[in-house]
Amino acid sequence: MALLEIINLTVDFATATGSLRAVDGINLTIDEGEIVAIVGESGSGKSVGMLALMGLLPWTSTVTADQISFDGQDLLNMTDKQRRKIIGKDISMIFQEPMTSLNPCFTVGYQITEVLCQHFGGKRKSYNKQAIDLLNQVGIPAAESRLNSYPHQLSGGMCQRVMIAMMIACKPKLLIADEPTTALDVTIQAQILELLIELQQSHGMALVLITHDMAVVAETAERVIVLYAGQQVEQRKVKELFEHPKHPYSEALLNALPERAQDKLLNAIPGVVPGQMDRPKGCLFSPRCDYAEDLCSQEKAPLNDGILCHFPLDLSKSKKPKAINLETE
Amino acid sequence: MSAISNASTSIRAQQWQEFWFYFSASKTAVAGLIFLILVILMALFADVISPHGPAEQFREFAKLPPAWMEDGQLQFFLGTDYAGRDMLSRIIHGSRLSLLAGCVVVVLSMSIGVLLGLIAGYRGGWIETLIMRVMDTIMAVPGLLLALVLVAILGPGLLNAMVAIAITYTPSFVRLTRASTLIELNRDYVTASKVAGAGPARLMFISILPNCMAPIIVQGTLSFSTAILDTAALGFLGMGAQAPIPEWGTIIAENRDLIMSAPWTVTFPGIAILLAVLAINLVGDGLRDALDPKLKRS
Amino acid sequence: MVPVFFGVTLVAFGFIRVLPGDPVEVLAGERGVSPERHAELLAQLGFDKPLWQQYFSYIGDIFQGDLGTSLITNRPVVEEFFELFPATAELGLCAILFALIIGIPAGIIAAIKRGTWVDQGIMSISLTGYSMPIFWWGLLLIILFSNTLNLTPVSGRLSFLFDVPPVTGFMLIDTLLSDEKGSFLNALHHLVLPSIVLGTIPLAVIARQTRSAMLEVLSEDYVRTARAKGLSTFRVVAIHALRNAMITVVTVIGLQVSLLLAGAILTETIFGWPGIGKWIIFSVFSRDYFAVQGGLLLIATSIMIVNLIVDLLYGFINPRILHQKSKS
Q: How many other CB atoms are found less than 10 A from the CB of residue B297?
């Protein structure tokens, strides 16, 4: 049985200018110990879907789905109280901005021991030793003295490590990492990713990695889901996607990698993700798609074998240079 | 030229439309605005609307209760005071004074305050320090107390009360304008204007000021409502409008001895103050939500 | 703060000198005197010396604790002030307590239940409280509770039936220290209505501020993290959010002190409360200019001191400020 099963998740937001559909019918199945990446541009709804899972969306949101189940439990129809027993303990999430995601008024030690105390009871201070152990696991030097540090005394990378320590404290079965390295220096990015993989392996956690960076996907994930404007356009094994993307958007994302630049120009995707007001009548990607035909702008794209496209790509139709073999990258 | 001026008028029209869209989203703000307009109309047409003159005494009908109570009469709908004057008429005429006080105070404090704030922010240096220190000193003394002291010097009366209150409100405008000016000074469009040769007056009033207007307008509405309250307070203490002027606070002071025997003489003027101030505060809230983009909820 | 203090002394100093009329008539209370007597009195008041010299001797007097003598009671102004100050302080503290105990929870509830009728109801009530004239509100409550329902006393701090020796000047403490049975409850009884009246506007302001501060904090990243840890709503709000929201609210409380004093003037007048507010009104009316001058300075200084305390409190609550201070 899959650890996490999401079927047809949709999230709508009530705004001053009408209803905004941020996530439109995404599906996700994760088994224990798997690493799945969710990839997309800003505005693709990749974070919103996972936030909906955790119950962390604001009051203006409406979450609907055919099924959201975790470890056999129905997350969709659970009460908030029941959900709070699971999140932070069996499902955890780390966020993009580590500096602002930690409470400035409390020490690092407090914030880590708090989550342990919440889920396992007892006195908070009795978890201090465990907190030190966790800090060591995430690679923070001088862990014991760090317990009394405040977040503003730590660098971005350290804050992220603290967050990771905090969120794996209860040994979750599933860890969701929402763009964990986007706000960090490039040099730190690699370290944090390595740390995540290491922890994932040693703890046997399933990992959902949300990112906009295809290079990160290549390095870490086994499967990848590509989102565009809230819709799921492709879901494949990473290796297969890199070798032969079937959706024009996936192909365009791969071509935008710096390694694939031709001459001195990056292959940027022209245009922007449609917002609330300018959603195309037909396929959402059609205005920016190199392969778009008349049908594409008229009718919504159907699901062809898991690919949301009228004309999924096959090798013969590909206009751009073929994907480079992963092993040589 | 005409095309440009047409474009600018249509931009204005668009701005008004957008402003009204956000303002009207708050039903309470619109309700407040409607009530305020009614009060203004009441003040303007006081002579026509009020059933009697505010100073007309009907000695035989002194201390009459409101019309719906026993012994009340329809011609004195809200009852009469100790001298037999009709409460409703006095309250209607009082609205003139309160609105006048609000206007005078806001106009005075806003114009002087904004000017000083612009100069302080733009000039900097010792001028800024001097202005800000003076404003800090004024703010160190509680508003009502300072107004009282000023009225003690100037002598009691509605006009002096208005001037005194205006002086106590000036520092907030100065601070607000200076803060906004300092922010705007660093912006590129100001530098561009300077490079193009704009003088200080033009820079201050034409370039910078329009961009600071939002918080100033919000503060202005707040000051308007507080001015009405403070004028009534001074009137109540006997330092503002002097009896028999039908200023709402003064009416309450006059009838203070009657709170047991004729409580309506004290209750209704107070309700009038409350409703007027409430309406203005509702409008002020609506203005703030409409003008401050950061507060826009989506 | 120091320049502002001197600024206020200038205001107080200047106040007497811009009064209309002859200083001898006004301050010495004598009219139609002979020129020699006039010069004598002028010298007594110190008005014959150059202005700057007068100012310096005034400052000198201040630092020796001499703020002049009341023209009415002939007692030193400082003495009168400090005798009456505890009454106002006690009233003010009770008013703020009332405002905090009701205002902060109201603001929190309004923030959590944002958009519902609970939120709108709380905000409407708070807006009404904010728009009321204090003196009218006091009179209204007196009509209702004291006169009609006979629930509370009309004026004063203590029933004249009790004889409580003043130790601290704070009636609640003095009654506890004294032997008079029932005096503490009586004092409390007298405090209820004035505290409510004085505390109504701070209540409204605190409720609104708490709500908007909470709304802002509740949308912060670290609150989302706290929720993601599975913490209970109570914990998220009361521990993670509140502490950060209180930072804004504390500064607002500080600003209330000045308004509180203005409100005290009106409240004390209505309730016959023997404090600073009533005293200064009386002084203005009875043309006791030295009392007004001294009172002005003392009141402004007290407010400045309270603001200083609030600033320190602010640094205590927000560790970031603390660390910056300790680093520098």
A: 11
pLDDT tens column, A179-211: 988 888 888 888 888 899 999 999 889 999 999
- Residue in C127, C140, C262 nearest the CB of B267: C140
State which residue of chain A sits closest to C240, comparing Cα positions.
A103
* Chain C residues closer than 8 Å to A80 by CB: 233
Q: Give the bridge partners for A105, in sequence order.
A: none
The residues in C 139-158 lying below 8 A from A, measured between CB atoms, are none
Place of tokens 């918080």: B215
**Nearest of C235, B199, B107 to residue A84 by alpha carbon:** C235
Report the pLDDT value the prediction gives residue B297, as an integer from 0 to 100: 42
What number of residues does chain A have?
329
Distance from CA of C239 to the nearest CA of A (A): 10
The ipTM assigned to this model is 0.84
Nearest to C222 by CA among A42, A110, A95: A95
Instruction: Please report, for residues A14, A27, A106, A277, B298, the alpha-carbon distance to residue A19 in angstroms, rounded to integers and kept in the order given.
Output: 5, 22, 38, 10, 10
Say if B282 is an interface residue toward chain C (CB within 8 Å): yes
> Does the beta carbon of A15 lie under 8 angstroms from any beta carbon of chain C?
no
pLDDT value of position C327: 40
pLDDT of residue A322: 44
Q: Which residues of A touch C114 (CB under 8 A)?
A: 59
Angle at which helices C276-285 and C242-271 pack, to 10 degrees?
50
**How far, rounded to the nearest angstrom, does the alpha carbon of residue B221 sit from its chain's CA centroid?**
6
Cβ contacts of C139 on chain B, cutoff 8 Å = 252, 256, 259, 266, 270
* Least trusted range by pLDDT, from A121-135, A284-298, C202-216: A284-298
Orientation angle between helical segments C289-317 and B143-154, nearest 10 degrees: 160
Integer angstrom CA distances of residue B243 from A99, B50, B118, B192, B239: 63, 19, 40, 57, 10
On chain B, the residues whose CB falls within 8 A of the CB of C11 are 137, 141
> What does the pLDDT look like over A304-325, one tens digit per residue?
777 888 888 876 555 555 444 4
**The predicted structure's pLDDT at residue C321:** 53
Which chain A residues in 11-50 lie under 8 Å from chain B, judged by CB atoms?
15-17
End-to-end CA distance of chain B: 39
Residues A214, A211: Cα–Cα separation, whole Å: 8
Taking the Cβ of residue B256 and every Cβ of chain C, the question of whether any pair is shorter than 8 Å is answered with: yes
Axis crossing angle, helix C242-271 with helix C77-112, rounded to the nearest 10: 130
What is the model's pTM? 0.79
**Using CB atoms, which chains have 3+ pairs under 8 A with C?**
A, B
Contact C139 B278 (CB under 8 A): no
B282 neighbourhood in chain C, CB within 8 Å: 127
Tokens matching residue B206: 């034409």
Residue-level pLDDT at C325: 43
User: Which residue in the block uniquely carries the two structure tokens 């503490």?
Assistant: C184
In degrees and rounded to multiples of 5, residue C143 shows phi and psi of -55, -45
